[in-house]
Hints:
Elements: H1 11-40, H2 54-99, H3 105-134, H4 137-177
Amino acid sequence: MKFSTLFKYDKKRLIISIVLFVLAILILFPLMLNLLKSVTHSGETPDRIFGYGVKELEDIRKSYGSEGAKMYFITRFTLDIIWPGIYVFFMVNVLVFLLDGLKGKWVLAVKILPFIAVIFDLFENTFCSIYFFSGQKTVGLIASFSSLIKWHFLMLILLLFIILGLLKFYRYIRSKKK
């Protein structure tokens, strides 16, 4: 599949992306969380916290211990290699569907937003893993900053889902009246 075809609406690809997204949330997340919990005895993970700082990261690091840090590393670089691919595939396909029929340079910019979010997600995971082994505050700050940027992009994308969904619904209703 060419990269440019990802930005063209395809109903089958949209359905596949939705199914993969739901399956990942229902199966992959609980599996990895239980694996992490089995070693750390904690379900706390920086990925699920909006706006954590170095202090919160340090608290998680201490609660994990060295075995927990290793398990965090393993789960991040299995789950977070698979998960970003799934959610970027899902988000791009939903945006492509919602933007279908709209024109302008801004349309391409909107379709690229999930890739920016995933880049900062990968930065966060990488720097959290390094922090859990090194304890260097600067690395923790970079992880925290990466997380904030990731979450802001994800919230922006969610807001765009809502706005573009309402716009698509309005256009659909209007087309039925004609």
